[in-house]
Specification:
mainly alpha; 75% helix; elongated; 167 residues
């Protein structure tokens, strides 16, 4: 069995390459409708290896942003494909969203993406299907993803030694 500490992994791939890898890993993870990639492990490991948690969080958030944008536009352009009962369901969802005060959905999207480690596609694609305004969807998700990934990176940066002490 092989044992590679995070510091050796960062030393092997290099600091600059670690940041680039973070961005593209999060981009790949953000397009979870197309490809599933556990970028969370990558961020945690690279932060444990000594990379700057703020840069990791920012780059991962930007990668997720591009992936979420892809998912939004898949939903937006896929509206013509959805017919029958699913179309009626999305129409009811659209009417429900429009009835709510304009500030509720952006706050919900921010909280969802900053706390819950599930793909944003669960919300982004339906919001694209109902043609909810792109900026009102993507900005809260971008900010929430930056917060989540920065917290994740800090958990790796400060928590690896603590967790490793148990094993």
């Amino acid at each position: 069995m092989y044992n590679f500490p995070p510091t050796e992994i960062v030393e092997f791939i290099g600091i600059n390459n670690g940041y680039v890898l973070t961005f593209f890993g999060a981009l790949l993870g953000g397009t979870s409708i197309l490809v599933t990639f556990p970028y969370h492990i990558l961020i945690f490991t690279l932060a444990s290896g000594g990379l700057n948690p703020f840069f990791l969080g920012l780059l991962a958030g930007l990668g997720i942003f591009i992936g979420d944008s892809t998912s939004y536009f898949i939903g937006y352009t896929g509206r013509e494909i959805v017919t029958g009962k699913p179309a009626a369901l999305f129409e009811r969802f659209h009417k429900w969203v429009v009835k709510k005060p304009k500030w509720i959905l952006p706050i919900f999207l921010f909280l969802y993406s900053s706390v819950i480690p599930t793909p944003n596609d669960l919300l982004v694609i339906p919001l694209g299907l109902v043609r909810y305004p792109y900026i009102k969807v993507i900005i809260p998700l971008l900010l929430g993803s930056i917060v989540f990934n920065t917290l994740l990176a800090f958990a790796g940066f400060y928590g690896f030694e603590w967790v490793a002490s148990f094993f």
